[in-house]
Design a protein that fits this description.
The protein is α+β, with helices and mostly antiparallel strands and about 180 residues long. About 25% of the residues lie in helices and about 35% in strands. The protein has 2 domains: about 70 residues, 434 Repressor (Amino-terminal Domain); about 110 residues, no CATH class.
């Protein structure tokens, strides 16, 4: 048990610092004292289990990542063609959503590599996808993601998301972009 608590403590501190939050700022968002956050980060105590979803939302990670850290290595590297351009695409796995209401039962995630700023001109759509929906990916500004949405009807919709600094419901999020295939 002590090993898990120590790993959680280290991950909590890393996530907090990456979001640029002080212990006091995090405490305020969670409705606890900064002393409680300090105890968690020093593995002297653990947060109430009901705070974990809120923490994951603040940090843009999953609850599992709070305990295990962010896995930064892709499962494999694929090729994805957009228009006439072929991109290396790091595949990071899938997210099962079959138990949730909504149209998607599964999401699959790729990060396009070496895109530079070529997607920055794309029009923004309304949809956002918070960082904590991405499995084992440390999302950074400027990255482009391909997300295949497997629907309840059995179809697959491919969507493109840009990490552009969007904040949605106090959570860092990627914004869907509209890709004009004739431009690539």
């Amino acid at each position: 048990m002590e090993g898990i608590q120590a790993k959680f403590a280290a991950n909590l501190q890393e996530f907090r610092k990456k979001r640029g939050l002080t212990q006091e700022e995090l405490a305020k968002k969670l409705g606890v004292t900064f002393q409680a956050v300090s105890k968690w980060e020093n593995a002297k105590a653990a947060p109430d289990i009901f705070l974990l979803p809120t923490m994951a939302g603040i940090f843009g990670c999953t609850i599992d990542q709070l305990f295990q850290g962010v896995k930064r290595e892709p499962i494999r590297v694929d090729k994805i063609t957009i228009g006439s351009t072929v991109f290396d695409a790091s595949y990071f796995g899938e997210l099962d959503r079959s138990s949730e209401s909504g149209y998607a039962v599964k999401l699959e995630f790729w990060r396009l590599e070496n895109t530079g700023s070529i997607f920055s001109h794309c029009a923004k759509a309304f949809n956002v996808l918070p960082y904590n929906n991405y499995p084992s990916i440390e999302v950074e500004r400027g990255q482009v993601f391909v997300v295949d949405c497997h629907t309840r009807s059995g179809s697959v919709e491919r969507r493109y998301y840009l990490a552009d600094g969007t904040i949605w419901r106090d959570m860092p999020s990627t914004r869907e972009i509209i890709v004009d295939f004739d431009e690539f």
